[in-house]
Amino acid sequence: FYIVRITPTPLGEGKSTVTIGLVQALTAHLKINSFACLRQPSQGPTFGVKGGAAGGGYAQVIPMEEFNLHLTGDIHAITAANNLLAAAIDARILHENTQSDKALYNRLVPLVHGERKFSAIQLARMKRLGITKMDPKTLTADEINKFVRLDIDTSTITWQRVVDTNDRFLRKITIGQANTEKGFSRQTQFDIAVASEIMAILALTSNLSDMKERLGKIVVANNTKGQPVTAEDLGVTGALAVLMKDAIKPTLMQTLEGTPVFVHAGPFANIAHGNSSVLADKLALKLVGKEGFVVTEAGFGADIGMEKFFNIKCRASGLIPSVVVLVATVRALKMHGGGPNVIAGVPLKKEYTEENLKLVSDGCSNLLKQIQITQQFGVPVVLALNVFRTDSPAEINLVCEIAKQSGA
After folding, report:
1. Residues 319 and 360 reside in one and the same domain
2. Strands 293-297 and 260-263
3. Is the same domain home to 195 and 306?
4. Collapsed DSSP state (helix, strand, coil) of residue 308
5. Is the same domain home to 228 and 269?
């Protein structure tokens, strides 16, 4: 099962709630083995207007506080790895600006017990540079220059530092203002931690060696010749992999009714692919057996998270869902149909609390489009209408009838 929703609104459609409720129904009530696979929430949205992502009511992951906050520290591991790479970039630029080729070479290939040896990662870099020599003593001055200098063009650096907090004053900063940085300063910024490419890598990786290879291919900038500079060039791939070695393991939690949940990875759908990890899905499928079900959810709506699920995650994992569950609410459809703006903390306008079939009917154009998108992938779609006490029977019947007519 793949859970997705119509285009999201500030009201929230209840995608996580439906995911958890479905798994509880299958496992606790129908006695069918099933597993939920959810993304780990970022502390940014958790402490912002959106709030947590543990579900709601009697369909929650518990303990909710652990789920929404540190959990087992996967996001902190991503933060550490990301910022290590960012620090390595600026440190390398500083050393190249202030040291000779010989001094850099002595630092990169130091004497140990009277001899110099290239590391495996250095030999790989030399191979990319077309240098086939294995003995550090035999390199020419030109080869040493090519080996020690990345010549990073600072205007092309795309790798930013991250923090898992909504701290707007870090959106643009100046680094390198201390005297020890010898006049090297530049403007940069902080991103939210889960926006790191390392989060996307974690969600798509299949094992530790695959993750290490993906980490090494991260492009952080271009050099002065316009060629890409990678984490592998900086020599930090192994360190990044070690920092992430425990984060690669999905976290096992439970719902209020004691059914199992894997929480793993949390890339955003607007800047990454927005789905929980491939590893969690594969492990859950193995655990439920041939007769069981795995329920995994998308980020954002069917118009972005689901398309990236099929185009990116399914290609990476080789898995295809048996059915797509499309979550919608009457009040969200009213908003898509031209209802008044919804503002956090302000009571809902009467259009959302009283029957209004015209708004619902107009808003179903969004629902129809999401159903059409799903059908293009050749997977059956089921509408899950998340009902609220303000929804009238006529509004509910109207949505269900329109969905059936469209093939859901």
Report:
1. yes
2. unpaired
3. no
4. helix
5. no
* Residue linked to tokens 């290239």: 118
Give the CA count within 13 Å in the CB-facing half-sphere of 82: 26
Going by the DSSP 8-state scheme, the letter that residue 226 receives in this structure is S
Q: Which of 244, 261, 289 is the last residue of a domain?
A: 244
Token pair listed for 221: 């900038």
Distance, CA of 218 to CA of 230 (rounded, Å): 5
Domain that holds residue 267: 2-72+251-406
Indicate if 309 and 351 belong to the same structural domain: yes
Q: What is the pLDDT of residues 40-56, one digit of tens each?
A: 988 888 887 777 878 88
| 60-65 contact pairs (CB < 8 A, 24+) | 60/17, 60/20, 60/255, 60/256, 61/20, 61/36, 61/253, 61/254, 61/255, 61/261, 61/263, 62/253, 62/254, 62/255, 62/256
Answer yes or no: do 228 and 299 share one domain: no
Measure the CA–CA gap between 84 and 231, rounded to whole angstroms: 10
CA distances from 49 to 125, 152, 345 (A): 46, 39, 9
pLDDT in tens, 260-297: 999 999 998 888 999 999 999 999 999 999 999 999 98
Same domain, 303 and 278: yes
Q: What is the pLDDT of residues 225-255, one digit of tens each?
A: 999 999 999 999 999 999 999 999 999 999 9
**Do residue 57 and residue 202 come from a single domain?**
no
pLDDT tens digits, one per residue of 147-157: 999 999 999 99
**Secondary structure of residue 329 in the 3-state scheme:** coil
Task: State how many domains the chain has.
Answer: 2
Determine which helix (DSSP H) or strand (DSSP E) holds 19, and give its type and residue range: helix 15-24
